[in-house]
Amino acid sequence: MGRHRKKPYFDSSTALQEQIQDAGRFSALHQVVKCNASQAALLKFVLPELLPDCSRVLYLDGDILVKRDLTELYNTELEDNYVGGVLNSFTFYRKHLSFEDKVENYFNSGVMVLNLQLMRKDNITEKLIETKAKMGYTLMDQIALNYVFDKRIYLLPVRYNYQILGLPGTNNDKEIQTLNKHYGTQYSNLEDLLADTVIVHFAGRAKPWNTPTTPLSKEWYLTYLRSPVSEKLPPLSWLFKVELEREIKKIRNSWAYRVGYIITWLPDKIFTGIYSLKHNGLIYTWYRLLIYLHLKKEQDVCE
Fold first, then answer.
1. What residue segments make up the domains of the chain, in order of their start?
2. N or C: fewer beta carbons within 10 Å in the chain?
3. Three-class SS of residue 107?
4. Residue 93: partners with Cβ closer than 8 Å, 6 or more residues away
5. Residue range 14-162, CATH number
6. Helices (H), strands (E): how many in the chain?
């Protein structure tokens, strides 16, 4: 893809397949149990070795949704930098273990354009493994990458890595202004950002395939249905059920629904009361009203 490619993106050689399957060799590097990512994420460290004939590679996490062509992203001029990446959205709200203070630009490692040629030249793989071995942070690969790549990071626009974890709440003027300052953008609102987004990243624990209430889960699901993968996996029709329940809840919380409910509910209850008075008498009807209002229990009436 693009002018930098010498061979196809994915080398299907046996050697590469064995390296990927042998991700467990990194088990000693990460002893902290609490982590969203698996140890396979540490294969990012050895990409220069896994792809020896490539000068660069576009790395994408598995929890993403690609909305547009990625040629322009892949062909980004990295200059003398190891990586092209987007600032981490979580730092938009607070610091993570105070680590962000130690680096110039703390980026998210879910979408990266990696300068493999420069990484091989500077022996970065070894430095990443050594750095990870010394760190006790819960994040699998991201902090080590930020530490080693510090001051050699080419910042990409947020449109290339819209991270669901930190940005859904930016839907008011004040938050958007802060976001624009953080990313150097000029979005008017969250809708503008979404319309401009190339890659959606479902960072964090909640994923659209296991938590349907995740923002943009519907868009992910519709894309999933159009993909060849959907024919091989169980149907996810329950996502639409959750979406329907969400819409019903929204309708029921609206003033129009509440007013309409009272208009239709009140005449029905008046008619029922008149009918009960006519056929059951005043005392019985009075007690049924008290029960309906939760002022008396059913057994109290029976006694």
1. 14-162, 255-302
2. C
3. strand
4. 166
5. 3.90.550.10
6. 13, 7
